[in-house]
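[Discussion] Sanity-checking designs against the backbone

I'm trying to build intuition for which residues belong where. Below is a structure token string of 304 positions. I'd appreciate it if someone posts a full sequence so I can compare it with mine line by line.
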């Protein structure tokens, strides 16, 4: 299935049972809620998906199950976060074999590769597969930035098609457009900068709080795309205190609590992560409760 790198791509959480097994029933409930809300793709195995704690066979299961659930409605994108080029190539092969339509790729993990090494890493994987690739550019969390000069080198790989822009520098959207035009699709990767990025010309949003609030997230995107910026802004202003739960070290626990509150998830995380406790838990629950209490009435955004 072709990946059109445009619109809302939830970076979905991985659901676990209380016995630390994959909870495929609740996972399916959440994916169906995303599809009903009108998302444009599903991303598996990102930070929110607790990728670093997943076993290889679990990743295989998640891709296969998601492909089955979406049934061709939207593309399924698998994140690649590997320590070696060999491992990344193998992960790309497995993702394709399991039915994924595209890849999201972080730079090499653990080892802080320099610019040349990072470019060669992306090129090697891109040249090993025909799956389309979105570069995950998040130097804040992963300490390696894919610069404009590096993107210029990667432009020769036709299947490197998009960037998840998570540098926290809103002007990077304009810098990418000024230098490359439409060569790369740009998707905002920071919930608290999403509407700003879309207004500045980003093509989409790799979203986090969408896991709990899919309709509100898609509504913001669709409204701004239709030029109804004021309506999008009002929903976004309501959403912002919740979106800030995504830019936090405990984003997985935060968002899973929100999924519980909206009935499409569980709180279970995989150790070493632990559920929130004490004042932190009370604070997050308070934000979620206030958000639910003041939840906006949405227009018919799917028919704009």
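Best answer:
Here's mine. Compare freely.
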């Amino acid at each position: 299935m072709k990946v059109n790198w445009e619109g809302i791509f939830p970076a979905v959480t991985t659901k676990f049972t209380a016995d630390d097994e994959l909870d495929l029933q609740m996972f399916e409930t959440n994916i169906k809620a995303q599809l009903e809300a009108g998302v444009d793709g599903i991303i598996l195995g990102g930070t929110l998906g607790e990728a670093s704690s997943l076993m290889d066979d679990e990743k295989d299961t998640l891709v296969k199950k998601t492909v089955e659930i979406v049934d061709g409605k939207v593309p399924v994108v698998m994140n690649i976060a590997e320590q070696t080029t060999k491992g990344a190539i193998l992960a790309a092969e497995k993702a394709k074999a399991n039915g994924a339509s595209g890849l999201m790729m972080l730079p090499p993990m653990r080892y802080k590769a320099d610019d040349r090494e990072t470019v060669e890493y992306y090129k090697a994987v891109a040249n090993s597969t025909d799956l389309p690739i979105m570069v995950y550019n998040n130097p804040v969390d992963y300490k390696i930035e894919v610069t404009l000069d590096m993107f210029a080198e990667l432009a020769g790989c036709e299947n490197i098609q998009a960037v998840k822009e998570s540098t926290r520098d809103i002007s990077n959207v304009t810098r990418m457009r000024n230098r490359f035009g439409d060569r790369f699709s740009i998707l905002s990767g920071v919930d608290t900068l999403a509407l700003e990025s879309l207004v500045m010309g980003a093509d989409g949003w790799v979203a986090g709080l969408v896991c709990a609030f899919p309709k509100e997230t898609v509504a913001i995107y669709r409204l701004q795309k239709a030029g109804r910026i004021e309506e999008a802004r009002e929903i976004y202003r309501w959403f912002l205190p919740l979106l800030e739960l995504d830019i936090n070290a405990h984003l997985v626990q935060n968002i899973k609590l929100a999924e519980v509150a909206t009935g499409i998830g569980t709180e279970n995380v995989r150790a070493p992560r632990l559920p929130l406790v004490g004042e932190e838990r009370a604070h997050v629950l308070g934000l979620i409760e206030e958000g639910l209490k003041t939840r906006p009435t949405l227009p018919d955004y799917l028919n704009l």
